[in-house]
Design brief:
Chain lengths: 300, 267
Amino acid sequence: MSIAETNAASPMLQNASTLKSEERRERMTFFGLSLPAVLAILIVVFVPVFWLSSLSFYNAAGELSLENYERIFNSALYRRTFVVTFQISISVTVICVFMGYPLCYWLTRVSDRTAAILMVFVLVPFWTSVLVRTYAWLVLLQRNGIINSSLMSMGIIEEPLQLAHNLTGSIIGMVHIMLPFLILPLYATMRSVDTDLVRAAVGLGSSPRGAFWRVFFPMSLPGLFAGIVLVFILSLGFFVTPALLGGGRVQMLAQRIESTITVYSNWGAASALGVVLLLLALMMIWLMNRVFGLDKLFMR
Amino acid sequence: MEQVGQRKIDGLWLTVVGIAVLFFLILPTLIVIPMSFSGASFLEFPPTSFSFRWYESYFTSPEWMSATKTSLIAAVLTTAIATPLGSLCAYGLHCSTPRIRNTVQVLVIMPIVVPVILIAVGVFSLYAKLGLNYTLTGIVIAHTALALPFVIVTVMSGLQNYDFDQELAARSLGASRAYALWTITVPQVKFSIQTGAFLAFITSLDEVVISMLVSGGDNATITRRMFNSLRDQLDPTIAAISTCLIVISVAMLVGVQLIGRNKNSDK
């Protein structure tokens, strides 16, 4: 289009620079299209979180100091919070692996049609509000709830078990919420495994179990790893289910941050806890990116 | 022979575990539905009598109705804003150079990765300065940022399966960039955009932690009221509300599945 306008002196060079500037303008247009969304995320996520983090480096007198960090690492209360948070997150992740892996493997062995129908059992809970599912567990696990009453009528226990309002209840509820996050990436990876390779291993004399452990299992690991990281990150910062099913007795990091602010108005300590939680989450994401590639999230 | 027997046992074991895990996932999700029709004044399962009293208590309570209205308006507005913004962002990123794309991608998924309690506390104090706490605007802005990653991820994966040369062909035949985008590209990734919109709606409707701090007063969301009520006692009205929320979630899920089927039959 601008060819007619170019001076005759060095048309080739002129063209090249026109093309280049046009390309640059084009790239800026594309970037501009992304800008509103990026800005919204910057304003709602980055600005408040950075501002909150910065609070952790000031003491009560408004001077720069690491007092808040000293306090959270020296206080038995906060140390206990970290221990409980890791205890719960690790338990939930391990239980999810032992429940999710056999399920996904089973789904790869039934027909595609059956698997598609059975996936509804995973997707309906996944799409259902966390609050609704936590409420259901509160009802199921309560003292005179169905689990206690049926165990008692079967004569397995004599006294109702304390299932809700404690660590057990929080873990059961969280496993239910987190399990789909493990299943979905794992199942996607397992489905992409070429089953002919397993058949070839058996054909070449491997036992079915040997073929599973030496051929199928290693190929399913990327999906398993992605699921584990996802469940672990989400568990570390989880609020709703432990807050309700823990009955105030279980204090994970997220609840401690909330109560430190809403009850004690101690922004310094809360933001120091927040920074630690943020760093833990970012470290996990970095790890996931290294091993699995964050890009995979954008391609299905 | 021995191996065949072993295989059968392995297969049986796997089936039993698989079915048990599926029941573990689905039963607690659906158990509130029969409970919501119970006639008793306390929570019981299985219910011994049938009534609509908890639905009546939900639909006649001005507090619950106002919270429901706030949540639905917030979810509709969030969807209306996040869907076009997210789709445009996905399109822009799809056409950008890999370097820009990779950087922005990491930035864009942060709302999913950063623990939501930190976003909630941060937004709460930012809104305190701007006077946005307890306003519908505040809720919608925060929910939009949370919903954007879902729209962007779904639309980008839709664009990956779309042959971009078609848009270039339209432009070489004289269509402007915007016209080609609107008439050639958008109809072909329509299904991804719709899926993203469903996800945005449900993200906003079910969001608890930010709403808990940022919404309130006349603009309390239904999740905030439910959370506070559950902290004190197990009100059976919540079973009726939960059933309504499950119906909406399942409707959204069915919508997405139908979209998926249409998409596949088109190919």
